[in-house]
Amino acid sequence: MFAITTITIATIAAAVYWIMNRHKPLKHLLSDFRYMLDMQGAGAGGLIDDWINIRRNKIELPDASRKIAVITGGARGIGTEVIRGLLKANVTVIMGIRKPDAAKKLMETMENGKNLHVFSLDLQSQKSVKEFANCVTKKFPEINYLINNAGIMYGDYKLTEDGIESQFAVNHLNHFYLTHLLLPALKKAGRVEEPSRVVNVSSCGHYPGKIFFNDINMKEHYDTIAAYAQSKLAQIMTTRYLNKLLENQDANVKFYSVHPGIVDTDLFENTTFNKLPWLKKIFFKTPEKGATPILFACFNKDIEERGGLYISNCVEGISNRYSKNVDNQNKLFNISCELTGIEPDKFGQN
Fold it and tell me: Helix H segments across 261-320?
């Protein structure tokens, strides 16, 4: 039934895509169609992985009193459940969202809600990222966990106020910038026996992706699926590169990237799945289950020596070959530094 459903959905999506995009030049049409099919395949693979590893996707929350966590987003969906788990573990949580008033209900209803602090953060603005980081470090000079959780998926072509394609900016670049700004606090909190951790929430949707180094904003031709794949791939590549960079500096900070699973959240509002809510209820994870591998990346002791790991359902996930290429990682690091005004040899020093 699963295979038949997947094939049926892919066929319908292909037909709809052809009708809506037949006006495009053939080379762009074929490229976009390939990305669409590859993304459908990645999604199907993600669903299978969720099913196969359902019993492995679990975490026992520790008592993490006196630990400090920073998370982007969290007003809804997976992020809300990550915050719930962190608070249950007695972590003090700093939340960065565009509208801080939206967190009042969380403070009032969640266990240990008094330990939740909220600051304004707009990930479409590097200025806002810097202001957020300044507010955080002024009050919390040591940070144990940074969870780069917030993200967007698909939508029309849009440049941020900094001139960056919006999915690349929100999902990767401005989290990269935030990591740079908070790294001194992460280093300060890290210990040899208990390193600080940076968790980048990526996706199996990275799998069809590549980095468009010659056109990072995809101005020549914009395909929203390719842009999403690029942004999520960039998170995994950055995780691996920065983990190695910090290891070489003997810093006690570990980096992990996480695919939370195929989760029933508002992230799918710009996809065909939004028109099939019954399908999401049957096959997709709940936000609580999606939060589990993220909390695993924060707390599990067995992965302390495995920095750079890509995690899915609390085990090592399958990432594409492109993400493992060290030259690609280095190029991405340098272009990310350039776009955020960071001198590469001074990353994390501010």
Answer: 277-283, 287-299
Among 120, 103, 227, smallest CA distance to 173 is for 227
Contact 63, 89 (CB under 8 A): yes
What DSSP string describes 164-195?
Answer: -BHHHIIIIIHHHHHHHHHHHHHHHH--SSS-
Bridge pairing between strands 116-120 and 253-259 = unpaired
Secondary structure letter of residue 318 according to DSSP? P
Strands (DSSP E) contained in 4-115 are 68-72, 92-97
Q: Is the pTM of this model over 0.85?
A: yes
pLDDT in tens, 172-197: 999 999 999 999 999 999 999 999 99
Pairing of strands 310-312, 92-97: unpaired
Active-site annotation, residues: 228
Contact 121/182 with Cβ under 8 angstroms?
Answer: no
CA distance 262 to 265: 9
* Interval 206-255: pLDDT, tens: 999 999 999 999 999 999 999 999 999 999 999 999 999 999 999 999 99
Q: Which residues make beta-bridge pairs with 161?
A: none
Cα distances from 49 to residues 18, 59, 207, 260, in angstroms, run: 29, 17, 14, 11
**70 CB-near residues (< 8 Å, 6+ apart):** 93, 94, 96, 136, 140, 143, 145, 146, 147, 182
